[in-house]
Specification:
Blueprint: H1 6-17, E1 25-28, H2 31-42, E2 56-58, E3 72-75, H3 78-85, E4 90-94, E5 98-99, E6 105-106, E7 109-110, E8 118-119, H4 126-132, E9 135-139, H5 159-165, H6 167-170, E10 175-180, E11 183-187, E12 194-199, H7 205-210, H8 230-240, H9 246-249
Parallel strand pairs: 1-4, 4-9, 9-10
Antiparallel strand pairs: 2-3, 5-6, 7-8, 10-11, 11-12
Length: 252
């Protein structure tokens, strides 16, 4: 196989975020996470439930950007999604516009809430996603505009916000992984702060620190993010993303 690309390392890191998740709905936003959940289910997490994006859960592995052509496993209409997600049976990977050190996420607006300079999506499902079931994040471009000391609006609930709100917010609240084009991060259990887990090949710890607008928790030893195996690389390139959409989201 030819040299592994940064996009393929990111896809495997997203897949690893779904390792040993069991039978949950795997929802992933962005091309790289979509590759990751397909790879995870095809290999080490076969119980993940993937939707066709409409109203059915589908068996098999299909290319990103195309129709779900596998066998239909279950009828999964929109109103039934809530029955599942309210009980922690979903792991979503969202794309934050801003993220702070405790995992508070903003996807709503940039600037003062009363008169924002940029209007974005609105909070959408972010409050419920972060309170009711495990949540991870995908950041295609790791920089200080995304990783900020304080988000302009809390759309998704961070660890500090959940603790302040009490048991109703913390019961299912679980921020798991943040995968970026530079590194993999998680949240330190004691402080709830963002912690560096690994850096991608060709990236240094200093590169990540310089691209982050607050102080990270950095262990004494930070390993390199694993590369895909030969079998995983074959799946990504020939089955899951034969059109190479991944390189449009992450270059290098």
């Amino acid at each position: 196989m030819s040299e592994v690309t940064r996009a393929e390392v990111c896809a495997v890191a997203c897949a690893d975020a779904y390792r040993d998740n069991g039978e949950v709905i795997a929802s992933a936003f962005g091309t790289i996470p979509a590759i990751g959940v397909r790879l995870a289910r095809h290999t080490f997490s076969p119980d993940l439930v993937l939707s066709d994006g409409e109203a059915t859960a589908v068996r098999g592995t299909w290319p990103v950007g195309g129709p779900a052509e596998g066998d239909v496993e279950a009828w999964l209409p929109f109103n039934q999604i809530f029955t599942l997600v309210w009980n922690g049976k979903r792991h979503i990977m969202m794309i934050p516009t801003q993220l702070d050190m405790y995992g508070n996420c903003n996807i709503s607006a940039i600037g003062d809430h009363a008169r924002p300079t940029v209007q974005l999506l609105g909070v959408r499902g972010a409050p419920g996603n972060t309170v009711y079931h495990p949540t991870s994040y995908w950041v295609p471009k790791h920089n200080t505009r995304v990783f900020v000391p304080k988000v302009d609006m809390v759309s998704g609930v961070g660890n500090d916000s959940a603790r302040k709100a009490g048991p109703a917010a913390t019961r299912y609240h679980e921020l798991r992984r943040v995968v970026t084009d530079l590194a993999v991060l998680d949240f330190a259990p004691d402080s709830g702060r963002l912690r560096l887990v690994s850096v991608h090949p060709g990236v240094t710890v200093d590169d990540v620190v310089a691209a982050t607008g607050f102080e990270l928790v950095i262990p004494d030893s930070v390993p390199q993010t694993r590369k895909p195996t030969a079998d995983e690389l074959e799946l990504i390139r020939t089955v899951i993303d034969p059109r190479n959409l991944r390189d449009r989201e992450v270059q290098g």
